Amino acid sequence: MPLKIVRNDITKMECDAIVNAANTSLLGGGGVDGAIHKAAGKALLVECKKLGGCEVGRAKITNAYKLSCKHVIHTVGPKWNGGNCGERELLQSCYKESLNLALNNDCKSVAFPLISSGVYGYPKDKALKVAVDTITEFLTEYDMLVYIVVFDKSAFQISEKLFSDISSFIDDRYVDTHFIYRRNRPIVTDESDESIESQSIDGSKKHKTATPHCTCASAPKAISLEDMVSKIDESFSQMLLRKIDEKGITDAQCYKKANVDRKLFSKIRNDINYRPSKTTAIAFAIALELSLADTKDMLMKAGFALSHSNKFDIIIEYFITHENYNIFEINEALFAFDQSVLG
Ligand code: APR
Question: Is the distance from CB of 16 to CB of 71 less than 8 angstroms?
Fold first, then answer.
């Protein structure tokens, strides 16, 4: 996934460049600025003093010194002033200028904090949206691994209603059965009742299901292994390409919307038996806006299922059931439920 949203301290990120949310003096401050200068050491300030400051919306690059990355890109975000004073355009410019500096310095990976969303007061959810939109647009043109490093959960403002809707959706489906066993065998509450195979924690009983023994002459003929293998189903790759054609979109439109890089897509396209990761398969299902049935079918072809004992899967199922394919809202919800995000 070329764009990843991670929770971390940006000074710990091991990539080619990290971006500093600086001020126009470039002489350090609090928040990210303070953390980066502290981790990089005094030599960073010595270099910054030679830069002559930086305008809002612009960016400048320095060495990283004691940090585990190669460069620090210093950019100055806008102060939030209600949203009608060009803040969005200036914030977009911070990301664009920083990405271009990273590109021109051969960086293959770069990590951003949520610029302006701390001291400068830019609402975190709006700041995240600007970051995701601007970076995604850049990634349609260039190959780079970009991290958005979210320091605190408040960046995702999930609405109370959506949170409670998803919570009840999870409760209805979250399979969390605990069978009470005594030394590897189920408790049979009534000695005579051998049919009870197990008893769940709420006391309900699961009865043994007699294994059907086919005695009638019409029992199906055993199918040879050759027959089974010759009837192999459509592969994940075949279904993906078929769905792209059915949707009338290009390959590039699909993998960019799925936030999957071009190299991975070409591997899938060129290898009929390619098995993607579950997250990648789900990302394509969301990008193609598949129905729940088609999503399950596509996942099965990659060797996966949507499980009801996995909150991540249930949240994905919630959004597909409600035909909401907005990757940003899905990530907000996943983040709110402490699940890893798509992309
Ligand atoms: N790693 C990642 N993110 C961090 C870290 C960290 N170590 N520390 C803070 N953040 C987050 C904050 O939670 C916020 O979401 O970075 C975002 C940006 O916050 P600030 O650092 O306050 O930056 P900004 O809002 O752009 O204000 C810049 O603050 O520190 C001063 O000198 C700086 O004057 C400038 C102003």
Answer: yes
Q: Are 196 and 208 in contact (CB under 8 A)?
A: yes
Q: Would you say domain 232-336 falls under CATH 3.30.70?
A: no
Domain spans, the chain: 3-157, 232-336
Please state the pTM of the whole predicted model: 0.73
* Residue 131, burial from CB neighbour count under 10 angstroms (0-12, 13-18, 19+): buried
User: Sign (positive/negative) of CA torsion 336, 339, 342, 343?
Assistant: positive
Q: How many Å apart are CA 44 and CA 63, to the nearest integer?
A: 7
Q: Counting beta carbons within 10 angstroms of the beta carbon of residue 196, is it exposed (0 to 12), middle (13 to 18) or buried (19 or more)?
A: middle
Cα of 87 vs centre of ligand 1, distance in Å, is 16
- With a 6 Å cutoff on the Cβ, whether 102 touches ligand 1 is no
Handedness of CA 292, 278, 241, 227 (dihedral sign): negative
CATH match of 3-157 with 1.10.10.10 = no
CB 98 within 8 A of CB 75: yes
Q: Is the CB of 91 under 6 A from ligand 1?
A: no
d(C-alpha 304, C-alpha 35), whole Å: 42
d(CA 186, CA 306): 28
**pLDDT tens digits for range 266-314:** 999 999 999 999 999 999 999 999 999 999 999 999 999 999 889 999 9
**What is the Cα gyration radius of the chain?**
26
